[in-house]
Prior knowledge:
Structural class: mainly beta
Number of helices: 0
Amino acid sequence: MTCQTALLSFKAYPVHGFRTEFGLCRGERMHRLDDLNPGEIYQIRHDAPCSDVSAAGDASVFYRIKAANLPLEILTTCARLIFMTTTGRRVDMQAALCHGQLHLVSETPLQTGTEYVLIEKTPVENPQAPALVPAASERCAPRRSNVIPLRAIG
């Protein structure tokens, strides 16, 4: 990232801070992307945590600073969501993963007491998620035949 790249400011809300007001899972908190269903009405909880995140470029990867002495946390977009409030205001959000937890990221802060209807959910083709791949074999000690060494990438 260069000094000339402008960072865009967004708000990230953990998905468990949302609950279904009307729909299949009424009253339940969300945990996964599959819990969000088009046509259902959602509302953010009044005590839902919110954090500031930044994005550079196309806003498909977000960065969150936890503390000055810790590395940046990276939130990777896995779906694009379009919500509509009951008053007709459109709210574009992105579902992003960070350490296995789903967050909803929005450029505009969400308001408590406002109902949001999910009108479109579009998964991202190739999210940059961590993957496990076989590691090179080591010859230091005999292994059992059913144990395969793995290393994490991403």
